[in-house]
Amino acid sequence: MEKYISKSWKVILQSEFEKPYFKELASFVDSEYKTHQCFPKQEDIFAAFNFCSIEDLKVVIIGQDPYHDVNQANGLCFSVKDEVKHPPSLKNIFKEIATDLDQEIPESGNLERWAKQGVLLLNATLTVRAHEAGSHQKKGWETFTDAIIKQISTKKENVVFLLWGKFAESKTQLIDLNKHTVYRAPHPSPLGAWRGWFGSKHFSKTNNFLTEIDKATIKW
C-alpha cells in the first residue's frame, strides 16, 4: 500500500510502515478493496500527501472519514471530485470563505488546488467501505495519522493547524504549541456551523499569519 505515497513522505514514515500495526492495516485494506467497494480509489489513498510535500507544507486541516458515496472521495478531507455536488460541510466551508475573504463560491469542490499550495487535507481514517460510514475506523489508520501529525509537529515550524469540531480539536495534544499555530472552531457541518463556524475567519487568519512569517498566502 505504501507504494502509492510520494518519496518525501515515505522517507519520514518508513518506520511506521514497518511496524506490526501498519502491516495488519495494509492487509485489512487490501482485503477490503478485493472483496468490497471502497473509497477512495487505491491509488488515491495517499493523495493528500502526494499533492502536498512535507517541504511545501504550510497548513494542516484534519477531517475524520472519507466520503462513502460513489464518486465523492478523492483522498483529500472535505474535498470531492470535479462536477460532484458539494456536500453540506463543504458548502459551509465555501460560504465562510466567501464571507471571510469576499470572494465567489467556486463551482468545483475539488480541493487539490489547496493541496498544491501546501495545505495537507488529512483525514484521520484514509479509507472506507462504500455506504458504511466509519467502517474502517479503529483498524490502525488513526495510529498512522496521529504519527504523521507528531512528525509534522517535530520536523516543521510555523505550521497552521485548522481544527474543526471536537474530534479534530482532540489532536491538539499531538502538536507543539510553542512551534505551531492552532485555530479551533466548531465543525462546518449543518449541526455545528451556526455555533461558531460562521464568522471564525480561519482563512483570513491563516493568510495573515503566513504573511507575518514571509510565506506566500493560500488562494482559498
Structure report:
The protein is globular, with a radius of gyration of 17 Å. 36% of the residues lie in helices and 11% in strands. It has helices at 7-17, 20-35, 47-50, 88-101, 112-115, 141-155, 165-169, 202-212; strands at 38-39, 59-63, 119-123, 128-129, 160-164, 181-185. The model has no long low-confidence stretch (mean pLDDT 96). By secondary structure, the chain is of the alpha/beta class. It has eight helices and six strands. The strands form two sheets. The protein has a four-stranded parallel sheet with strand order 3-2-5-6. Strand 5, helix 7 and strand 6 form a beta-alpha-beta unit.
Helix content: 25-40%
**Class by SSE composition:** alpha/beta
Query: What spatial form do the alpha-carbon principal axes imply?
Result: globular
Number of helices: 8
Rg of Cα set: 17 Å
The chain-level mean pLDDT equals 96
N→C terminal distance: 31 Å
Sheet with the most strands: spatial strand order: 3-2-5-6
Order of helices and strands: HHEHEHHEEHEHEH
- DSSP strand count: 6
| Percent of residues in beta strands | 5-15%
Largest sheet features = 4 strands, parallel
Summed up, what is this model?
By secondary structure, the protein is of the alpha/beta class. The chain contains eight helices and six strands; from the N terminus they run H-H-E-H-E-H-H-E-E-H-E-H-E-H.
Describe the SSE topology:
Blueprint: H1 7-17, H2 20-35, E1 38-39, H3 47-50, E2 59-63, H4 88-101, H5 112-115, E3 119-123, E4 128-129, H6 141-155, E5 160-164, H7 165-169, E6 181-185, H8 202-212
Parallel strand pairs: 2-3, 2-5, 5-6
Antiparallel strand pairs: 1-4
